[in-house]
Amino acid sequence: MTDKKRKHSVKVFSLFLTLVLILFTNTACGSEATDSEVNQPANEDIEWDYEADVVVVGAGASGLPAALKALDEGSSVLLVEANFDTGGHVAVSEGQFHSGGGTVDQEKWDIEDSADLYYYDHTRGTSINSRYNDREYVRSIANAMAETYDWMLDNGVKTLDVEPMVRAYYRDGGNDGDSVGRMTYVDASDWENTYTGTEAAGIGVSRPLEQTLHEEGAEFLLNYHMDKIYREDIFDGEVIGIQASYSPTILPGETEPLDSLMSEGNIEETKENVNIKANNAVIIATGGSTGNVEFRTMLDPRLEEYMDGLAGMPFSDQDASGEYAAMEIGAALGSLGNYTSVVGANITAPQRFGTQYGYGRGWTEDSVIWPLVRANGIVPDYDSLVIVNMVGERIGNEDQYALPQMDTARESFFDQALTGTVIDPEGDGNAETYGGPLWAIMDQAAVERNGWDMDAEGVLDYEEGYAFKADTLEELAEMVINKYHEDIEMDPEILADTIARYNEFVENGHDEDWGREETLVHTIEEGPYYALWATPSMHDTLAGIRVDGNMQVIDIYGQKIPRLFAVGEASGGMRVHGLGRVMTSGYIAGRAAASVDENGFATADTSLNPEYEGSETNDLTKTNKAEYFSDRGLSQETMTHSEKEAEIEEWEQDSKGQQDEDETSESENETGDNVFIGQSNDGFGGRIIVELTVEDNQMTDIQITEQSETVGIGVEAIEELAKQALEEQSADLDVISGATVSSDAFMDALNKAMDEAGL
Ligand SMILES: Cc1cc2nc3c(=O)[nH]c(=O)nc-3n(C[C@H](O)[C@H](O)[C@H](O)COP(=O)(O)OP(=O)(O)OC[C@H]3O[C@@H](n4cnc5c(N)ncnc54)[C@H](O)[C@@H]3O)c2cc1C
């Protein structure tokens, strides 16, 4: 357990004791809680180092808009950020922007949406991602979302000119509630992502907002971690400020802390602790709790310590400090039914194996924090591996693990992975069920098929125990020791049996144990062998501090806490991934914080701005949804259930017809001796396959028959490269800016096809 985590568990325990004591004292003696009981200095003893009207804790996707909106509304603003620079998770994110309710981009593409439709989609009982959402929270987000989106564009954020798409409608096998296209993409071409060293586009959200904040006079206190919120009394009175401690980032082997990119308006400070007074409000925008084991196992006991490869780390952590600080002064948690989701964005398979931080496209050596990243892993070739647990057994159907993030069919693999092993580690007859680390086992043949360099620096993290290599499977099993499960040893015999049995399944074309089909392709029999960390990682925090529609924090008795607000992943209310929701919550809280009355309560109006469609909102008496939406000219919801099903069936028939056509043309191609296939597994979304037609030693056609690259960026890039390759008769092309990974993978696949063709 790390010191930070230990500190939190001690804190929680003492909080619990404090609460018990105070409740007992209040009930038994009728007395008030005193400052000393909650370890707070008496207010008059606090020496304030800084002050502002609105103090925003955390300068990420929700904190930046919260600060800017409060500034717009005339408040002075101080942002307190634990990291060496702003951005949090958004700075390393992909910048896929999910926003609805009638945004300018939706209007441009004639997508009919409204606040009401967004609200309905995100509260509907038939979608797992909607049914547990807090109605007041969603109503407020729905009302402000389009307005926030347009405001964000006015403040320097740019989006690509692509049609907003439906992310993964639950009816089509996905898990999002959305029934209309709401996902756009950020255009980050003006900004370099020095954090990841890649073109991760989320930087195109944080940098413009940060720049505007600097220009408009906000102050930033970087390298300070908020540890405590000051309130007049533990369960009573107003929030008056925060305490924060110095938290510089110093890379291994260095002595100087890292610096931020922008510095105008930054406070230069290195004192160990500072006290910051908030005249009007404190906004908690600390980004959630997935990095805190004690916190997350309170809500789901399966989320144990071994899941240590959180998305966003090692750039920024989600240490639950916002939640704990708020709970310590009486805040409740909200929407807890949303906390875990094994489909969608909460728990996910890493896209890179053999490294601790394998979520997403990963990091390159150009990242300013590369010494913390250590290794980037390899993009797995699922046709060439099995996934085993700490004992050395397969625990599920690897086909499901290989599915895209939003596919609900992955659920059974995760459920199995998180509890699928039963052992008796003490040998005392008390068997335990547990999840534990997962390992991808593969052989040298897989390495050669994929052209990986398993010994190159920065590829696999052998040093910290996230990758192992040995000549035999038995030796490999003996090496696989995991720091979180040192008492469980991988049994050499079990691992060897698992692989032998799997090889038989491949030979027979039938997986008797788990029904694997799609990826049942290659045997594993040629040493050396590898065991690579393939453990699920956590991505989003989907529940947190309870708030009302103004994002004002609610205490455990259902009362608003004066002058305290919470936003983004630190707030509970709505299970929906990413930027649209968190940025809108920031906008709402900034507006609300600037509006507090003399008692610290928000007076801002959360109803729909009449400029945005659906102004007859909050119609509580309507019960016929179809009529309600059709009255507003919205066709999507006027369909009955069976009409919608019929539409989906038609769509399925069409796709089946298309698939049959594809298969026919594929078999024709297979028989043609002038068509050559090339494959790369290193695309941003994994595999890219190209079919190259050659006549008279000339490339005459290039078809991309399989790819999962990012819509609008990666896809356009590889299509453009295919054209260029034909024009130039070469695969040696310049990468397309913004899509380096996709470009390189496309050229790799084409090169392989050209090799086959003898070109
Ligand atoms: C790799 C990756 C890819 C993603 N891709 C997408 C995508 O394509 N589309 C999408 O919509 N979403 C994406 N997301 C999710 C999205 O980035 C997050 O939902 C969003 O950034 C959360 O916003 P937030 O403000 O709640 O937290 P953050 O953006 O993480 O900001 C929290 C900030 O608070 C700071 N902080 C924490 N504790 C303290 C403290 N005690 N004191 C002071 N400061 C503190 C942190 O350092 C951080 O800077 C992605 C996330 C990751 C990690």
How far do the termini sit from each other?
56 Å
How many strand elements?
24
Structural class: alpha+beta
State the CATH class of the largest domain.
Alpha Beta
Biggest sheet features? 8 strands, mixed
* Rg computed from alpha carbons, rounded to a whole number of angstroms: 27 Å
Low-confidence stretches: 1-38, 615-623, 634-645, 665-671
- The CATH architecture classification of the largest domain is 3-Layer(bba) Sandwich
* SS strand fraction: 15-25%
Bound molecules: flavin-adenine dinucleotide
Quick one: CATH superfamily of the largest domain? Answer: FAD/NAD(P)-binding domain
Query: How many domains make up the 3D coordinates?
Result: 3
- CATH topology of the largest domain, by name, is FAD/NAD(P)-binding domain
What shape does the CA trace take? globular
- The amount of helix comes to 25-40%
Signal peptide: 1-30
InterPro entries: FAD-dep_OxRdtase_2_FAD-bd, FAD-oxidoreductase_2, FAD/NAD-bd_sf, FMN-bd, Succ_DH/fumarate_Rdtase_cat_sf
EC number: 1.3.99.33
Protein name: Urocanate reductase
